[in-house]
Inverse folding.
C-alpha cells in the first residue's frame, strides 16, 4: 500500500512522535490528514503546515462517544495511526494506588482497541487499508521502574496480534511498532541510546508500503528484541537492575 494519496488519521498528533508522523505524511504526499488531540487548540501549529490537507479533530480515545463521533466524521480514511499514549512512570507494587495503572490501560489498551473497533468497518469499505499501532519494546520486557506502563503495552501488543488476525480477512494490514527509548521531551532524562521520533514515523510508514507487520525502530529496540530470543531471562534481570532501591526477595539486604 502506498502513502501517496492516502487519507490518514493520527491520534496524539500534537505529541513528540505524532507531529513527526504528520510531517512524514506530508512529505509522502498523503491526500488528507486528520490530526487528533483532546484539545483542538493544541493542533493549530500542525494545521499551519498545510491547511489544505490537515484537518483537526478533537478526540479523547478513552471516551467511546468521542471515538464514535470521530469515526462518523472521518468516513474516508485508509490508514489509522494509533499514536496516543500515556506513561506515568510508576511501579506495580511501589505505586501508592492503582490510579496510574488504570489511566495507562485506559489510553494504551482500551483507547487503542476502541479506535481499532470504530475504524475497522471504514477501512473495510476502502479495500482494507492499514492500522499502525505505536507500542513499545517495554511491552515485550517489563521495565519495573515503569512497570504499569510496560504491562499496558504488553496488553496492547497482544491486542494488536488479535486485531491483526480478525481483520486479515478484510485485507487490513496491522503494523506493530515497538521502539525503545524515543528522543522526546518525555524521555529527556532517560539514558541513551535513543531513537529519533522522525525515524519511528519513517519506519512505520515504510512498513505499510512493504507490508511488514512488526517494526523495531532504533538500535536499542533491535538489539534487545534479538536478545529476547536468545537469553530472555538475562534481559529480564538486566531491566530489573535499573529499579532504584531494589531488594531481592529472600535476602536480608
Amino acid at each position: 500500500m502506498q502513502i501517496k494519496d492516502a487519507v490518514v488519521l493520527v491520534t496524539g498528533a500534537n505529541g513528540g512522535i505524532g507531529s513527526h508522523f504528520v510531517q512524514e505524511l506530508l512529505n509522502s504526499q498523503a491526500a488528507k490528514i486528520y490530526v487528533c488531540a483532546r484539545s483542538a487548540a493544541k493542533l493549530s501549529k500542525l494545521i499551519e503546515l498545510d491547511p489544505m490537507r490537515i484537518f483537526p479533530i478533537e478526540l479523547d480515545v478513552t471516551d467511546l462517544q468521542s471515538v464514535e463521533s470521530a469515526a462518523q466524521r472521518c468516513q474516508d480514511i485508509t490508514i489509522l495511526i494509533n499514536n496516543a499514549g500515556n506513561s506515568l512512570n510508576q511501579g506495580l507494587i511501589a505505586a501508592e494506588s492503582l490510579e496510574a495503572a488504570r489511566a495507562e490501560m485506559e489510553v494504551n489498551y482500551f483507547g487503542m482497541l476502541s479506535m481499532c473497533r470504530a475504524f475497522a468497518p471504514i477501512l473495510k469499505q476502502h479495500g482494507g487499508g492499514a492500522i499502525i499501532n505505536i507500542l513499545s519494546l517495554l511491552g515485550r520486557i517489563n521495565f519495573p521502574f515503569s512497570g504499569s506502563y510496560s504491562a499496558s503495552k504488553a496488553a496492547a501488543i497482544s491486542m494488536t496480534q488479535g486485531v491483526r488476525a480478525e481483520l486479515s480477512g478484510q485485507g487490513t494490514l496491522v503494523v506493530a511498532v515497538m521502539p525503545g527509548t524515543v528522543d522526546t521531551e518525555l524521555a529527556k532524562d532517560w539514558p541513551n541510546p535513543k531513537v529519533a521520533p522522525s525515524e519511528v514515523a519513517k519506519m512505520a510508514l515504510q512498513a505499510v508500503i512493504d507490508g511488514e507487520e512488526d517494526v523495531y525502530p532504533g538500535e536499542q529496540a533491535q538489539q534487545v528484541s534479538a536478545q529476547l530470543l536468545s537469553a530472555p531471562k538475562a534481559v529480564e534481570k538486566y531491566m530489573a537492575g535499573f529499579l532504584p532501591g531494589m531488594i531481592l526477595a529472600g535476602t536480608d539486604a
